[in-house]
Structure formats: C-alpha cells, structure tokens
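Lab manual, section 2.4: Encoding a predicted structure.

Procedure: take the sequence of the chain (160 residues), apply the prediction step described in section 2.3, and record the output as structure tokens. A sample record is shown.
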Amino acid sequence: MRIWILLTAIFLAVAGTWPIRSGGGASPTLNAADSPSVKTTPVPVDVSMHDFMEGVFQGPYRRLKASIAAEPKDNAGWKAIRSESLILAEGGNLLLLRKPEKDAEKWTEYSIASRDAGAEVFKAAKKKDYAAAKKAYQTMIVSCNACHKQFDGGKNQLAP
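Recorded output:
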C-alpha cells in the first residue's frame, strides 16, 4: 500500500497536478493575476468618491460624533469611541489609494492628517482620556473639512 501511495505522489508531482511542488515554485496553472503578490495588492473598488465617502466614512463619523458628545460613563462608551475612531483612522489609509489626478499632494496631506488624528482619538480613548480624545476628534474634523473644502467645493462640511 505504501508503494502505491508513493508512486501516486510521484506521478502527480511529475504531472504537475500535485499541490506541493519541490523547489517551492508556483503551480504552472497559476497566471499573473492569480499570484499571491497580485492578489494582495490593494485595488480600490470602482465607485464614485461620493459613494465611497458615504459608504466608508458616514456611519462611523455619525456614531463617533454621538459617542464623543459627552464623556463615556462605562467601558461600552469608551469601546464605541475606540472602534469608530479606528475605523475612521484606517479609512485615511484607504483614501491614500484614491488620489485624484489634480492636487494629489494636498489629498495625501489631508488623508494622513485625518488618519493620524483618528489614531490619536483611539489612543486617548484607550487611556480613557476624554479631553485628549475630544481634542483629537476636533482636529480630525478640521482635517476632513479642509479636504472637503478643496476637493468637494466646500460641500459636506462636518460639524464636531
């Protein structure tokens, strides 16, 4: 029985259908689009910037705005601030994938500023430092509004 299994394994390896190939090379049935490096490269979904902003940022912004309106009284309140600020901070990284053709440097600047301010909200909430969280939140809103002013004609200004 062992010899049969060994012969089958050798046959499959030689035929190129065995899932593990000696030498660690890629399977010959993979094309460039299937390679791990191509699959893991971030590719933005093809949607309008309005749909992207509404879909990714609007919900977390509204929930964070409500959560940070007053100092949390319990761990659930702090967790809500941490969660929403982390989502918004990581959203800043997503913005870096969607640079416009015009004024890309300013877009990058605003995206990084929003991301970093969101991260500061998260860090302050982790320490349960309401004053620092609120200050970082306001900084984040200023960055968002500056970007909206330049890239959205001043529309969609956020209220802290």
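Check your result against the sample. The two ends are 72 Å apart (CA to CA).
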